[in-house]
Amino acid sequence: MNPIFADIPTTIFETMSRLAGQHQAINLGQGFPDDPGPEDVRRAAADATMTGWNQYPPMMGLPALREAIAAHYKRFHALDLNWETEVMVTSGATEALAGSLLALIEPGDEVVLFQPMYDAYLPLVKRAGGVPKFVTLRPPHWRLDEDALKAAFSPKTKAVIFNNPLNPTATIFPREDLELLGRYLEKYDAVAICDEVWEHVLFDGLSHTPLMALPGLRERCIKIGSAGKIFSLTGWKVGFVCAAPALMKVLAKAHQFITFTTPPNLQAAVAYGLAKDDAYFLDMRRELQAARDRFAGGLAAAGLDVLPSKATYFLNIDLATVSNDLDDAAWCTRLVSEAGVAAIPVSAFYAADHVRSVVRFCFAKTTDKLDGAVERIAGFVKRG
């Protein structure tokens, strides 16, 4: 067996979900919403299944969807994309990440990873033959640090995986951090694989700036988006890839030999959804923000240190202010077994130099679940 995959331990998500089942817990660990997603988008998929084309669609994606992606990013991010040469559809953002790494990386190339990080990044980098170089981000602000970038980048740096907004920290990198990273990309002639799947799940009136939109970075960025996150349909696995033609030419070859294509009914429905008026996107944010505020208020009232949540479905607490002796993994194990609430220790998103005091909750749940979780957590904290 290939040791990269054979030696991967059971994921924290599987572990906590199993414990949640054993203890009949409220599961705030896994990052998917209780909401079924917009009915009109789901009906568009059903209609396309019954009346549309169900054989192989074009390898790059349905033209209607690729045009819709380009129009959507023009509308929201002022990006001018040629849908024929700079836009591709993949079977989810994770396939887009895998294809990007396989297209770019040769054995021995270095890839800069910012941790905490999505759990797929590291095994995908290793399987592509890349050598990971870690930059550790720390609470409460999780900002980029120039000294850390200086230590991670080298003449061997081929690529960077950059997740913004960042899961699991629920933060958005400010413009000065984007510009700092851009300078290092240019200095070392590296490409940024930009995981921007949370680009629409933003709060407090904040907006998203794609790294690709910064001056001088258009030719060295691969922008990855996700219909699953935009429409709260995480099982659909429809990803968007945008890149300059020279990059896209090779990205398309990697995609061709991974999944080749994506279900045409889902593509048709996503094309419809991307053209929805602004009200949908604003209402989605307002509803999630209300859930965030309700849950954050309950945790704060229980005496926990709630870190800012500016984006994503997630909210974090920092146990360090309660006690320097508390370990996030041990605290989560106790929480699910003693209080019946499942959460995720953020140390699981590090490969080295772990931060071991931060716990992540998913608040994209019903009000009853959130209120029940707060009541259980408050009792757990009170008992000590």
TrEMBL record:
What Pfam families does the record tag this protein with?
A: Aminotran_1_2
Residue ranges constituting the Aminotransferase class I/classII large domain according to the UniProt record? 25-377
InterPro entries this protein is in?
Aminotransferase_I/II_large, Kynurenine-oxoglutarate_AT, PyrdxlP-dep_Trfase, PyrdxlP-dep_Trfase_major, PyrdxlP-dep_Trfase_small
Instruction: State the protein's name.
Output: Aminotransferase
Domain of life here? Answer: Bacteria
- Which terms in the Gene Ontology molecular function aspect does this entry carry? transaminase activity
Q: Does this UniProt record's set of keywords contain Lipid metabolism?
A: no
Q: Which UniProt keywords apply?
A: Aminotransferase, Pyridoxal phosphate, Transferase
Q: Which cofactor does it need?
A: pyridoxal 5'-phosphate
Where exactly are the transmembrane stretches of this chain?
none
Q: Does the keyword Transmembrane apply?
A: no
